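C-alpha cells please, single chain.
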Amino acid sequence: MLYIVSFFTLAFSLLINNAAASLFLGIFLAIFFKIPEKFYTKKYGSKILQTGIVFLGGSLSIDSFLEINSAYFIYISLFVITAFALVLIAGRLLGVSEKLTYLLGSGTAICGGTAIAAVGPAIKAKPEEFTTAIAIIFLLNAIAVLLFPILGDFFNLSEREFGAWVALAIHDTASVVGAASMMGEEAIEVAATLKVTRTLWIIPLVIGSAWFFRNKSSGFGLPLFVVFFLFATILNSLTNPSIEVSGILKLINEICLLTGLFCIGTQINIKAINT
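Here you go.
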C-alpha cells in the first residue's frame, strides 16, 4: 500500500514541477505513514539528488559562464557574492546553524530551490535544514511575484529596468519569469538572460561547498558526485551539444532533483519538528 501511495504522490509532485511542493509532499507522506528505514525513499533519496546534480552539470557550460551577457557579468557576480556574504553574516548574528545559513545564502544569492537542492548533498545538510531553507525561499518568492509588479508600476520602471531588477532580486527562475511576464516581453527577455548568468554560479558554488565542508581528514578530496558534476560541465563545454540533447539533460536533472527532494521530505523527523 505504501509503495502505491508513494508512487502516485511522487508522480503528482513531478507533475507540479516545483521544488517546495515535492519536498512538502514527501513530508506529508511521512506524516500519514510510518516510513521504514529500508524504504526506497530513505535508501536512495540522497543518491537520486546527487545524480540530479551531475546532470545539472551536463546542462551548464563554462563558456556560457564566461560569455553570456558579459556586459553584466561583473555586476551580477558582485551581487551574488555580496548577497551570499550578507546572508552568512546575518545567519551568524541571529544564531542560525551554519548549514542552514549556507543553504539560505545559496538559495538567496543564486536560484532558490535549485541551488539549495544542489548544495545540500555537498554540505551533508539534514532533511530538516532542507525543509526550513526551501520553505523560507518559497515564501519569499511567492511574496515577490505578487509585490514586485506593483512596485514596478509605482516607481515607473521601464521593462528593461524591471527585468534586471527581478532577475537579481527574486530567487527562483520560474518566479523571475512569472514576475517579468506581468510587465511585458522585453522584461521577460532581460530577466531570463540575466538570470541565466546568475544561475551559472552554481558551478563554483557546488565545488567550493563540497571542498569547504569536506571531511578534513580526507585532505583536498571531493565527493564523487561533485567530481562527476565538474566533469559533466567540462564535457558539455567541449562538445557543445544540440538544443535537443541539452533539453533531455535538463529534463533528467529536473526529475532527479524533484524526486530527490520528495525522498528527502519522507526522511523528515516529525518529532524533531514538533519539538
